[in-house]
Design a protein that fits this description.
Layout lengths: L33 H17 L11 H7 L2 H4 L4 H18 L7 H15 L11 H13 L13 H16 L12 H17 L5 H9 L15 H8 L10 H12 L1 H21 L27 H20 L8 H8 L4 H16 L44 H4 L1 H8 L7 H17 L8 H15 L4 H12 L3 H8 L11 H7 L6 H23 L3 H7 L2 H7 L6 H15 L8 H4 L21 H14 L3 H12 L1 H18 L8 H16 L5 H14 L2 H11 L5 H17 L7 H12 L9 H10 L5 H14 L1 H4 L3 H10 L11 H13 L2 H4 L6 H13 L3 H14 L3 H13 L9 H14 L8 H13 L21 H18 L4 H20 L12 H19 L2 H5 L3 H8 L7 H16 L8 H4 L8 H20 L4 H14 L8 H18 L5 H10 L3 E3 L8 H20 L17 E3 L3 H9 L6 H17 L41 E2 L63 H7 L19 E2 L15 H4 L16 E2 L18 E2 L43
Antiparallel strand pairs: 1-2, 3-6, 4-5
Length: about 1500
C-alpha cells in the first residue's frame, strides 16, 4: 500500500530496546485489574515518552504495539485505560515513524479511539485524564501522525468525525459543567493538526469542506460561540452582548484557509459551484406553485423562472459565506469571484441582486454579520460635535461588524470591479437600488479600511449622486438611506469635495432636492437626513469653520424652501425636522447629561456661554439664531411664516380643549348637538391643515372621548405664551408619554397630534429666549446681533403676548442710550425702537409701554437727534402711541423740525424723518407750517442737485451707501406721500393728489430724473425711481388713490418690473407682492407680475413663479377668478408694450409673456374661461389711445393660438365657457357697429401664419420640456437686465443676421374724445370730471403706518379678502349685486345694442370669496365665476348706446418712450427692420400736457 509518511529520520541498525515487559493483554475471562492495568500503561507511557526515535530498537516495540492495538485496551470501559493506551499509541507511532507497526485495520481502530473518545474528551478541561488527552493531541499535531488517517481505507467517515468533533469542541458546544475554557495550546494544536491533514490529504470529502466553510457562518450571530453557560463569560469580558473577539471555531477555519490557500481555493470553488451554479443553471425545484415572496420584484423578472424560496435561502447563505471568507482569507476565493461576476450578468433578478450585494459587501469588508452600525449623529448633543473629534474609521462594538478587507478588491479583481460598477445602469430598479446601497457602504467603510484612490472615490460619489435622481423611487430612497449612514467626517471628506448644498449637480444638492421628492417616503428620509447633518454640523458652523459653512451652511434654506411647495405632508415633515433635527426640543440636554462634556476641549466657544455657568436657554437661543442666520431671504420668510401661525394655532387648540371639556367624553350636559357641532367645527379646522383629514378627524374625536384632563392641562402648558421653555418642553414630554401609555388611545394619535403641538406651542419664540435675544442685539456676540434684531422685530409684530414681558426692559435700555445734540445713540437702539413701534401698533399692546416722563423725553430726544433717521421715525411712532399728550408733542416736534431748516445742518435728515411720520400720524398738527413743509421738500430738496454727476458713478447704492442728498430726497417724497395719505376729505385728497401723482409719475417715467438739466447722479435716479414706484403702490392701497391711477400711468408703473437694474426690479416686485398678499391692492396689479417672464435672475424668477402658483392655488381654493380675469388686462398691457412689433420674432417674445401666464395659472378647469377672455377682446376696441388700435387683436389671436396649442400639448379637453364675461371699461370700449364687429371677428391679425405657427409650436414644446435649472448663488444680478420696455422705441426694419439698430422715437397720441371719464394721466382737481363712487369713500386710513423701511420683506401668505388702506374690505359677491344696475362693463354687442353692461351674479354659496375690486369705484367690472357655470339669473345692467357713452381717454395724449432699449435677458442680434406697412399713421391732436412738461414748482 502506497503511504505518505510523517516526518522521518534515518534509522540506525541497532538501538535501545524497550525495558517494559509486563503483559497488557489477557485471555477471555481473566482480565487484568483496572488499577494494575493503569499502573502498567502509565509505566509504559513514561518509558516510551523518554525514548529517542533515533536510538530505539523498533523491533522491541512490536509486542507492545500489538497488545496496544488489541481490542482489550482500545475498547476498555475505563476512560483512564483508554487515555493511557492512546498516549502509548501516539508514542509508538512517533518512535516507529515513518512505518507504523500496525495493519490497516488496526490503524482504523486506533484512530477511531482517537477521534471518537480521546479528542472529544478535550472539551472538558476538568477531566481527570485531561493531561493524557492533551498529550495525544500534541503528539498527533507535532509529529503529524494524523496523516496516517489518509492511508486508512474508507477513512472519510473518520475524517468527517474528526473535523466535526474538533470544531464542536473548540466552539464550546460541549464544555464542562464548570464552564472552564479550553486552553489556547489545545486550540493551537487542533488547528495545526487539521492544517496538516488538509495539506497532506489528496482529496477532502465534500462534507468536510462543508464543515470548514460553515464555521464562517458563526460570525453571523452575536451569540456565536456561547454555550448555555456562556452568558457568564460574556458578562466578564464584554460590556455588550456583541462579540469582542472572533469565535474560536471561526479562527480555526480561518487558519486552515490561510495555511492551505491553494487547496482550499479548489475545495471552496467546488463548494460554491455545487451550491451557486447548480441553483443558477439547474431546473427550478418547484411544486408548480411559486409564492409571491419568492421573487423580489415580480415585475422585474425578465428572464426564466428564478430559484425557489428554499433555493434562495441556500444562495443567501452561500453569499454570506463569501463575504466572510473574503474577510478571513481572500486567497481561497480566487476561483469563486469569477462565478460572482457571471451572476452579475444572470437573467434572473434575484441572482443579480445577490451578486451585486455580495460584491459590494466584499469590497467594503463587510462580513456575514452585516454592516457596522451607523455613526452617532445626534443633533441635540451638547457640546456640539467638532470635526476633529470624529473618528476616521467606522466604529463598532463587535469585531463581527467591523469592516475589514485584507486587500484591495479593486486592484486584485479589476475586471470584476469594473463590471460591478456597471450595475448602476441595470435595467432593474431592484439591482440599481442594491448597487446604490453597496456604494454607500463602500464609501463609508473606505473599502474595508484599505482606502480608495481619489479617482475611484470620486467615481463612486458621482454614481451615488446620479442615483439620487434616478427615475425609480426605490433607487432614490436607497441613495438617501445610503447617505444617512454617513458620519459627519464622511460627509465632509467624501461628499463635500463633490460640491456643497448650493452647487447644482452635487450629491448634497441632489439630496436637498429629494426633500421635495414626489414620493413621500423619499422626502421624509431626505429631509430628515439633511436636517440631521446640519444639526450635527451646527457646532462647526457656529465656530466659523469655512469648509463646513460652504458645504452645509445653506441646508436650512433648502429645508424651508419646501414650505413654498404648499404640500400638507411636506408641511408636517417641516414641523418635525425643525423641532427634532434643526432645533431639537431636547437641545441642549439637561445639565446633568451635558456636564461631562462641558469640560472637554471640543466645546466650541460660541456654544458654551463663555466661562459662565451652563445656561440652557441661552444655548438654545443661539441655536435658533444660528438657524435663522443660515436662511436666505426666501426661506427666512418661510421660517417667519411658520412661526407667525403659532398664535392662531394656539387659540384654536385652546378652543379645542374647551370643546373637549364640554364634550366630557361623550357625557354632555345641556345641548349635546350644539356641543358636538362646536367640537366638530374645531376638529375640522385642524384636520383640513393636515395630510389625512379623515384620519385626523377620527383620531381627534377619539382623543376627545378619552377625556384625559391631565393631558388637557399639559397642552395648555405647551401653548401658553406665559410659560417658559422648560415648562413647555416638560409638558410635551409628559403628554407624549401619557398618550403612548393610554390603553384606549388609538395607535396613531400621537403622530397626529404632534404636528399640531409643534405649530401651537411656544417653542421657537418663547419668553425664556427673549432676554438672550436682546443680549445678542446689544452685544452682537458671535456676529448674531443683526439676526437677533430681525427676530425681535418679528416677535414684536407677530407675538405681542410674548414680547410684552420684556417691554419695560427694552424701554429701560433705550433710556440709557438716549441721544442728545452732542451725544450719538447706539446703532442697536434703532432695532429696539423698531420692535417697540411694531408692538405699539396694537392699541391693547401700547398700554404696556411706559408713559412716564423720562421715557417720553427719551422718545423726544430720539425724534430730534436719533441716528440714523429711521430711529426718529420709530420714536415718533412709539411716542404717538404711548403719550397721553401726543398732540402737544407732535406740534412741538414739528415746529422744532421745520424752524430754520437748512440742508446739511446737524440732524437735518432726522428732522425730515420726524416730519414724515408726523404728517402721517398727526396731520391735524400741520396747520400753519404746511407751506414750510412744502418749501423744504420741493424747493430745498427735490428740485436741487447738489451731488456732481460723473459718468463712472455706480448705478446702484445699497441702503448703507446712499448719500445724504439721496436720503433727503427719499424723505421728502415720503413726506409728500404721507401728507396725501393722511388727508381726511376725499375732494381735498383728489386736489392734493395732482402734484404728487405728477411728481411720482415723472420719476417713474423719466427713470428718476427731476432736473431739467438732466444732471442727477445715476445712483440717485435709480433709487428715486424705485422709491417712487413703491410709493405709488402704497398710495394705490387706498381705493380713492387707486382710482386716480389711469391705465397709461398704470402701464408705466408696470414697466418698472423690467428695469435694467436687478435691485430696482426686485425691490418693486417684492413690494408689489407684499401688498397683493395682504389684499391691499386691487386685482389689476396682478397683471404686473407677469411682465417678469424675461427676468434674468433665475432665483428671483423661480420665487416669483412659486408665488404665482401659490396665489393661483389660493384663488382656486376660494373659488375666486381674479387671475383669470387679469388675462384681459395682460393682453392690453402687452398690446401697449414699447417692444410690440408685428415682426414674428418680436411676437415670439410677446408669446413668452402669454406662455408664462399659461404655465403658472391655466389649468384644465379654468382653460375655457381664459380662452373666453382671450376671444372676448376681439369683440371690443382699445380704449387707450395709441398709434395702432389693432394691437389688442394681434395679442388676442396670439393668446388663443397659444391656448389651443397648450391644450393639445397637455391633452386637455376644453369645453365652451357658457357664461358671458365682462371686460374692464378703462381698457376697452364697445364697437361702433355690427359690421365692424363682424370684420374684426373674421380677420386673422397674426402676420405670416406659417412662420408664427412654427415659432409657437417650438415655443410650446420648449416650455413643456423645460426643467427648472439651478443657478449659482454668486451670479451677478446686474449681468443681464430684464426684458424692459423700450423707453425710446424706434421703428423696426427688415431683419438680417447682422445687428439691430436703435429705433427712432415713436410718439403716441390719443384721439380727441368728448368726455374724459377714465384714464386721465394726472388726476384732475375737479371732482365733477370723474365718476364718483357710490359709497362716498374717504381717503382717511383707519390704521397707523405699517412700520419700517420700504425694503422690508414679508412672507406672502394667503389672505381671503381684499382690504384697502382706508379700512374697507371687499365683499365681492354683495358688492357686485349692489352695483349691478350702475356697473360700467363692456359687453360684446352688435350695432343695435351698443355697449352692453352685464354683471354675472355668483353662486350663493361663494359670497365670501375673494373677487375683484368694488365695481363702482373701480369703473370696471371684473368677472367672477365659480368653477361651475353660474345660474341664469345674472342681472343685466341698463343698456346704453355707444353714441351716448364715448370711449374713455387719457388726458396725457403723448407717450414718449425713453431713449435706449436695454438688452434683454437673452440678448439677440437683430437687424434693422422697417415698420410694417399695415400700421396706421400716428396723427392726433394733443388734449393735455404730458407729465414730463408739467411745472413741478406748483404746490
Amino acid at each position: 500500500m502506497a503511504r505518505r509518511h510523517a516526518e522521518s529520520v534515518a534509522q540506525e541498525p541497532q538501538g535501545t530496546s524497550l525495558i517494559f515487559n509486563e503483559p497488557l493483554s489477557w485471555r477471555a475471562g481473566k482480565p487484568i485489574a483496572t488499577g494494575e492495568l493503569l499502573k502498567r500503561l502509565d509505566a509504559l507511557s513514561n518509558e516510551l515518552r523518554e525514548m529517542d526515535q533515533e536510538e530505539i530498537d523498533k523491533d522491541s516495540l512490536t509486542k507492545v504495539a500489538k497488545e496496544l492495538a488489541g481490542q482489550n485496551l482500545l475498547s476498555h470501559k475505563d476512560k483512564g485505560v483508554r487515555a493511557f493506551t492512546a498516549c502509548c499509541l501516539v508514542d509508538v507511532l512517533k518512535l516507529c515513524a515513518p512505518d507504523a507497526p500496525f495493519t490497516g485495520s488496526q490503524l482504523k481502530d486506533i484512530f477511531t479511539l482517537f477521534i471518537n473518545s480521546i479528542l472529544p474528551a478535550l472539551s472538558d478541561p476538568s477531566n481527570a485524564y485531561n493531561t493524557q488527552h492533551k498529550y495525544v493531541l500534541m503528539s498527533l499535531a507535532e509529529v503529524k501522525s494524523i496523516v496516517l488517517l489518509t492511508d486508512i481505507p474508507s477513512s472519510d467517515s473518520l475524517t468527517l468525525h474528526l473535523f466535526s468533533n474538533l470544531f464542536d469542541i473548540i466552539s464550546g458546544s460541549s464544555k464542562a459543567s464548570t464552564g472552564e475554557q479550553i486552553a489556547k495550546d489545545v486550540e493551537y494544536n487542533m488547528s495545526q493538526m487539521l492544517v496538516t491533514l488538509v495539506d497532506e490529504a489528496a482529496v477532502l470529502p465534500p462534507q468536510v469542506v462543508d464543515i470548514i466553510v460553515a464555521q464562517f457562518l458563526r460570525a453571523t450571530t452575536p451569540g456565536a460561540g456561547k454555550s448555555k453557560h456562556g452568558e457568564a463569560r460574556a458578562d466578564e469580558k464584554q460590556t455588550t452582548l456583541l462579540l469582542k473577539e472572533l469565535p474560536e471555531a471561526y479562527n480555526m477555519a480561518k487558519t486552515i484557509c490561510k495555511s492551505c490557500p491553494e487547496k482550499m481555493a479548489r475545495y471552496v470553488s467546488q463548494y460554491f459551484n455545487d451550491v451557486i451554479m447548480d441553483i443558477s443553471t439547474g431546473p427550478s425545484k418547484t411544486n408548480g406553485h411559486r409564492k409571491a415572496s419568492d421573487a423580489i420584484d415580480s415585475d422585474e423578472d425578465e428572464g426564466p423562472a428564478g430559484p425557489t424560496e428554499a433555493d434562495l435561502k441556500e444562495l443567501q447563505k452561500a453569499h454570506r459565506l463569501l463575504r466572510e471568507l473574503w474577510r478571513a482569507s481572500p486567497a481561497v476565493l480566487q476561483n469563486v469571484i469569477p462565478q460572482l461576476e457571471a451572476e452579475l450578468a444572470a437573467d434572473n433578478v434575484q441572482l443579480r441582486l445577490l451578486a451585486t450585494e455580495t460584491l459590494g459587501d466584499i469590497i467594503s469588508g463587510i462580513g456575514a454579520a452585516g454592516p457596522p452600525p451607523p455613526p452617532p449623529m445626534d443633533p441635540a448633543a451638547y457640546p456640539p460635535v467638532r470635526l476633529e473629534d470624529c473618528p476616521t474609521t467606522s466604529i463598532s462594538n463587535s469585531i463581527l461588524t467591523t469592516p475589514v478587507s485584507p486587500q484591495s478588491f479593486a486592484q486584485t479583481h479589476q475586471a470584476v470591479y469594473t463590471n460591478f460598477l456597471k450595475r448602476k445602469n441595470d435595467k432593474s430598479s431592484v439591482i440599481r437600488s442594491g448597487w446604490t446601497t453597496a456604494i454607500g457602504r463602500i464609501l463609508v467603510t473606505s473599502a474595508g479600511g484599505i482606502g480608495l484612490s481619489r479617482e475611484d472615490e470620486n467615481a463612486l460619489v458621482r454614481g451615488l449622486g446620479e442615483k439620487l435622481n434616478d427615475a425609480d423611487e426605490k433607487v432614490r430612497l436607497a441613495a438617501v438611506k445610503a447617505i444617512s449612514s454617513f458620519g459627519f467626517r464622511d460627509v465632509m471628506t467624501k461628499l463635500a469635495p463633490n460640491g456643497g448644498v448650493t452647487k447644482s449637480g452635487s450629491v448634497l444638492c441632489s439630496l436637498a432636492d429629494r426633500g421635495r421628492d414626489r414620493r413621500h417616503p423619499v422626502r421624509v428620509e431626505a429631509m430628515t437626513s439633511l436636517s440631521r447633518i446640519w444639526g450635527v454640523a451646527a457646532g462647526e458652523i457656529a465656530a466659523g469653520n469655512e469648509a463646513v459653512m460652504s458645504a452645509l451652511g445653506a441646508i436650512p434654506s433648502k429645508v424651508f424652501d419646501a414650505y413654498y411647495a404648499n404640500d400638507l405632508e411636506l408641511n408636517v415633515l417641516l414641523d418635525h425636522v425643525m423641532f427634532e433635527q434643526l432645533i431639537p426640543l431636547s437641545y441642549p440636554p439637561s445639565k446633568s447629561k451635558a456636564s461631562k462634556a462641558t469640560t472637554g476641549e471640543s466645546q466650541g466657544a460660541s456654544q458654551t456661554n463663555g466661562d459662565g455657568p451652563f445656561n440652557a436657554d441661552k444655548i438654545r437661543t443661539e441655536r435658533i439664531l444660528l438657524v435663522v442666520r443660515s436662511l436666505d431671504t426666501k426661506s427666512k420668510k418661510a421660517f417667519f411664516a411658520m412661526q407667525a401661525r403659532q398664535p392662531t394655532y394656539s387659540n384654536v387648540v385652546a378652543a379645542f380643549l374647551k370643546r373637549c371639556e364640554e364634550f366630557n367624553g361623550g357625557v354632555m350636559e345641556g345641548d349635546s348637538k350644539e356641543i358636538k357641532k362646536k367640537l366638530d367645527g374645531v376638529v375640522n379646522w385642524l384636520s383640513d391643515l393636515l395630510p389625512d383629514p379623515l384620519r385626523t378627524t377620527n383620531e381627534l374625536l377619539k382623543y376627545a372621548k378619552l377625556h384625559d384632563r391631565r393631558s388637557y392641562q399639559l397642552l395648555r402648558f405647551a401653548i401658553g405664551p406665559e410659560n417658559d421653555f422648560k415648562t413647555v418642553f416638560n409638558a410635551i414630554k409628559e403628554f407624549s408619554k401619557r398618550i403612548e401609555s393610554a390603553p384606549a388611545a388609538p395607535a396613531g394619535l400621537l403622530e397626529t397630534i404632534t404636528p399640531i403641538i409643534y405649530r401651537s406651542a411656544s417653542l421657537a419664540y418663547n419668553r425664556s429666549h427673549l432676554p438672550f435675544i436682546m443680549q445678542y442685539m446689544r452685544s452682537d456676540e458671535n456676529g448674531l446681533g443683526a439676526i437677533a434684531q430681525e427676530l425681535m422685530q418679528e416677535i414684536s409684530e407677530r407675538h405681542p403676548q410674548i414680547f410684552k414681558d420684556n417691554v419695560k426692559e427694552l424701554c429701560k435700555s433705550l433710556a440709557e442710550q438716549s441721544p442728545s445734540a452732542t451725544k450719538l445713540n447706539d446703532l442697536g437702539s434703532v432695532e429696539t425702537l423698531r420692535a417697540l413701534a411694531s408692538f405699539a401698533k396694537n392699541p391693547n399692546s401700547s398700554k404696556e409701554i411706559p408713559h412716564d416722563r423720562k421715557f417720553v423725553q427719551t422718545l423726544i430726544n430720539f425724534a430730534q437727534y436719533g441716528t440714523p433717521p429711521k430711529a426718529a421715525k420709530y420714536a415718533v411712532s412709539v411716542l404717538m402711541a404711548a403719550s397721553d399728550r401726543k398732540e402737544m408733542h407732535a406740534k412741538d416736534l414739528l415746529e422744532k423740525s421745520t424752524q430754520d431748516w437748512q440742508y446739511g445742518e446737524d440732524h437735518f435728515l432726522t428732522k425730515l424723518a420726524t416730519i414724515s411720520q408726523l404728517t402721517f400720524l398727526e396731520p391735524s398738527t400741520i396747520g400753519k407750517i404746511n407751506d414750510d413743509i412744502l418749501d423744504i421738500t420741493t424747493q430745498k430738496i427735490l428740485l436741487q442737485v447738489r451731488t456732481t454727476r460723473n459718468d463712472g458713478d455706480s448705478s446702484w447704492q445699497t441702503g448703507a451707501e446712499v448719500d445724504e442728498e439721496c436720503q433727503a430726497k427719499s424723505w421728502a417724497l415720503r413726506i409728500l406721500v404721507n401728507r396725501l395719505r393722511a388727508t381726511d376729505d376725499p375732494e381735498t385728497a383728489k386736489m392734493l393728489a395732482v402734484p404728487v401723482y405728477k411728481l411720482l409719475n415723472q420719476l417713474i417715467f423719466k427713470n428718476g430724473e427731476l432736473s431739467k438739466k438732466n444732471d442727477t447722479p445715476k445712483s440717485h435716479k435709480t433709487w428715486l425711481r424705485l422709491l417712487a414706484a413703491q410709493l405709488m403702490l402704497k398710495l394705490c392701497t387706498n381705493k380713492l388713490f387707486d382710482d386716480l391711477l389711469s391705465p397709461i400711468e398704470f402701464n408705466r408703473l408696470a414697466f418698472v418690473s423690467q428695469d435694467p437694474l436687478a435691485n430696482v426690479r426686485r425691490g418693486f416686485v417684492e413690494k408689489l407682492q407684499k401688498y397683493l398678499v395682504k389684499s391691499k391692492l386691487s386685482h389689476r396689479f396682478y397683471t404686473i407680475i407677469f411682465l417678469t417672464a424675461f427676468e434674468p435672475d433665475q432665483r428671483l424668477k423661480s420665487s416669483i413663479i412659486t408665488w404665482i402658483r401659490s396665489r393661483a392655488k389660493l384663488f382656486h381654493d376660494t373659488k375666486n377668478r381674479a387671475l383669470e380675469s387679469v388675462f384681459t388686462r395682460l393682453i392690453s398691457l402687452l398690446a401697449h408694450h414699447p417692444d410690440f412689433s408685428l415682426d414674428p420674432d418680436e411676437l415670439r417674445d410677446h408669446a413668452q409673456y402669454i406662455l408664462y401666464y399659461i404655465t403658472t395659472v391655466v389649468t384644465e378647469e379654468n382653460l375655457p374661461l381664459v380662452y373666453k377672455f382671450a376671444e372676448r377682446v376681439k369683440q371690443v376696441r382699445d380704449a387707450i389711445s395709441g398709434p395702432d388700435q389693432d394691437n389688442i387683436y394681434v395679442i388676442s389671436d396670439l393668446a388663443t393660438v397659444l391656448l389651443k396649442k397648450w391644450q393639445e400639448k397637455k391633452g386637455w379637453i376644453m369645453q365652451t365657457w357658457p357664461v358671458k364675461v365682462g371686460l374692464p371699461l378703462g381698457l376697452y370700449v364697445g364697437l361702433p357697429s355690427h359690421e365692424v364687429a363682424q370684420e374684426i371677428a373674421e380677420k386673422q391679425y397674426l402676420p405670416a401664419p406659417e412662420v408664427m405657427d412654427s415659432l409657437l409650436d417650438k415655443l410650446v414644446r420648449e416650455a413643456e420640456k423645460k426643467k427648472r435649472k439651478r443657478k449659482s448663488d454668486d451670479r451677478d444680478d446686474d449681468a443681464h437686465p430684464a426684458k424692459k420696455h423700450n423707453s425710446d422705441a424706434k421703428p423696426k426694419s427688415s431683419r438680417n443676421p447682422a445687428i439691430k439698430k436703435e429705433k427712432p422715437a415713436k410718439v403716441v397720441k390719443t384721439p380727441k374724445t368728448k368726455k374724459p371719464k377714465q384714464g386721465t394721466s394726472t388726476p384732475t382737481s375737479s371732482p365733477g370730471e370723474r365718476r364718483k363712487s357710490g359709497r362716498g369713500t374717504s381717503a382717511k386710513k383707519t390704521y397707523e403706518e405699517r412700520d419700517s423701511s420700504e425694503d422690508e420683506k414679508e412672507l406672502w401668505d394667503g389672505v381671503a379678502s381684499w382690504e384697502y388702506e382706508d379700512g374697507r374690505i371687499e365683499k365681492p359677491a354683495k358688492a357686485i349685486r349692489d352695483a349691478a344696475n350702475s356697473e360700467d362693463e363692456v359687453e360684446s354687442s352688435g350695432a343695435d345694442e351698443g355697449v352692453e353692461e352685464e354683471v354675472a351674479t355668483p353662486e350663493p354659496e361663494v359670497e365670501e370669496e375673494v373677487a375683484t375690486p368694488e365695481p363702482e369705484a373701480e369703473a370696471e367690472a371684473e368677472v367672477v365665476h365659480t368653477p361651475t357655470p353660474p345660474r341664469s339669473s345674472a342681472r343685466r345692467a341698463s343698456t346704453r348706446s355707444s353714441t351716448n357713452k364715448p370711449p374713455s381717454k387719457a388726458s396725457a395724449s403723448k407717450t414718449v418712450k425713453s431713449k435706449a432699449k436695454p438688452p434683454r435677458a437673452q440678448a439677440k442680434a437683430k437687424t434693422p427692420k422697417s415698420k410694417p406697412a399695415a400700421r396706421p399713421k400716428r396723427g392726433a391732436a394733443r388734449q393735455a400736457k404730458d407729465v414730463s412738461e408739467m411745472d413741478l414748482d406748483e404746490d
